[in-house]
Design brief:
Blueprint lengths: L8 E5 L5 H10 L3 E5 L3 H8 L4 E2 L3 H6 L3 E4 L4 H9 L13 E4 L5 H12 L4 E4 L2 E2 L1 H7 L2 E6 L2 H14 E8 L3 H29 L4 H8 L7 H5 L1 H6 L8 H18 L4 H15 L20 H6 L14
Parallel strand pairs: 1-2, 1-4, 2-3, 4-5, 5-6, 8-9
Antiparallel strand pairs: 7-8
Helix pairs in contact: 1-6, 8-9, 8-12, 12-13
Length: about 325
C-alpha cells in the first residue's frame, strides 16, 4: 500500500472534538477523504473543505484504502465496523483499519482478528495531545500492530501527529495509552489537591501555580488545566465521562497484567463520584471541586451544567 496523498483514499469515521480537526489535517495534506459521522453538521463542514460524504460506514469502507476510526468506546468501534451496514462489509482485501480511539487492548485484538479473516489489517493508534494537538497536528500517536503496516501508514499518521511510535503487536498502542492516562489522571488529582491546600491555607492559588511552573512540579496539566481549576471554567475539553472510561481501561489492564495500581484505583473512584453527581459531560479538571461540591450548586456557579448529563457514547 502506498500512503501518498495522490494514491491513497482515506475514510474517516467519527468527526467529534478530536476527529474533525484530525480529518481536516488529512484534507490539508491533499488526501482524498470520505467521511461518516453520527451528526450531519460535521459531515457538511468537511464536505465544504473538499471531503466526501460516505453516507454510511459501509460506504466509507468501500471508498477506503485506509479507514480511520475516532470513536468514544469499544462498542461504538465494534458497531461501526461490524454492525448493520458496517464498514467491514465494504472494505477490500489488503486495506487497513486504523483505530485511533481509546479502547481496551482486548477489544482491539478481537476486532483485528475478525478483520484479518477478511484480509484486512488493523492498527490500534490512540493519541494524546487533546483538541489543541489535533488542530496543530502535534499529537503523540502510539501504534500497535504489524510493523510493516505501521510504516506504510506512517505518512498518514504524521499528518496528525509529530510523535508516531510503533509500540509492538496489536493492543500495544492501547496499553501505552492506558499508561498515558494513568499519568494524566493522577497529575490532575495532584494539581487539584495542591491548589486546594493553597486556597485553604490562605494563599493565592494562582501565585502558587505560577511559582510551581518554574520547578519540578511543572507539568502540562498544571499549565493547561490549572487555570480551569482556578477560574472554574469547566466547559468540556476532555469530558470527565471519557476520562473515567480511560481510567477504567487502565485499571482493568493492570488487573490483566498483574500490575498493582492503587492510586489509579483511587482516582477511578473519584471520577465515578464526579459522574454520579451528574457531571460526566463537564471537563475532567472539575475533579478539583469534588471536595467542595454540595449538591451541584458549586458546579453551576463555576461553569458546569448539571442538566447536561447524557453519559451515552458521544463522538470523541
Amino acid at each position: 500500500m502506498s500512503a501518498g496523498p495522490s494514491s491513497t483514499h482515506i475514510g474517516f469515521i467519527g468527526l467529534g472534538v478530536m476527529g474533525r480537526p484530525m480529518a481536516e489535517r488529512l484534507l490539508s495534506a491533499g488526501y482524498d477523504l470520505v467521511v461518516h459521522n453520527r451528526s450531519r453538521g460535521a459531515i457538511e463542514a468537511i464536505a465544504g473543505q473538499g471531503g466526501r460524504d460516505g453516507r454510511s460506514p459501509a460506504g466509507v469502507g468501500r471508498a477506503s484504502d485506509v479507514l480511520i476510526t475516532m470513536l468514544p468506546d469499544a462498542r461504538a468501534v465494534g458497531d461501526v465496523l461490524f454492525g448493520p451496514d458496517g464498514a467491514a462489509a465494504g472494505l477490500r482485501r489488503g486495506s487497513t483499519v486504523v483505530d485511533m480511539s481509546t479502547i481496551a487492548p482486548a477489544a482491539v485484538r478481537d476486532y483485528a482478528a475478525r478483520l484479518a479473516e477478511r484480509g484486512v489489517s488493523m492498527l490500534d493508534a490512540p493519541v494524546s495531545g487533546g483538541e489543541g494537538g489535533a488542530k496543530a497536528g502535534t499529537l503523540a500517536v502510539m501504534v500497535g500492530g504489524d510493523a510493516p503496516v505501521c510504516e506504510a501508514c506512517r505518512p498518514i499518521l504524521e499528518c496528525m501527529g509529530n510523535t508516531v511510535v510503533h509500540m509492538g503487536p496489536t493492543g500495544a498502542g492501547q496499553t501505552t495509552k492506558a499508561c498515558n492516562q494513568i499519568i494524566v489522571a493522577l497529575t490532575i488529582q495532584g494539581v487539584a489537591e495542591a491548589l486546594a491546600l493553597a486556597r485553604r491555607s490562605g494563599l493565592d492559588p494562582a501565585r502558587v501555580r505560577e511559582v510551581l511552573l518554574g520547578g519540578y512540579a511543572q507539568s502540562r496539566v498544571l499549565e493547561v488545566l490549572g487555570p480551569r481549576m482556578l477560574t472554574g471554567n469547566f466547559r468540556p475539553g476532555g469530558r470527565a465521562s471519557f476520562h473515567l472510561k480511560d481510567i477504567r481501561i487502565a485499571y482493568e489492564s493492570g488487573l490483566e497484567a498483574g500490575a498493582l495500581l492503587p492510586m489509579t484505583s483511587l482516582v477511578y473512584e473519584l471520577f465515578v463520584g464526579l459522574r454520579a453527581r451528574g457531571f460526566g459531560n463537564i471537563d475532567h479538571s472539575a475533579v478539583a471541586y469534588l471536595q467542595r461540591d454540595r449538591g451541584g450548586a458549586q458546579f453551576r456557579e463555576l461553569g458546569g451544567d448539571e442538566t447536561d448529563n447524557d453519559n451515552r457514547a458521544l463522538d470523541n
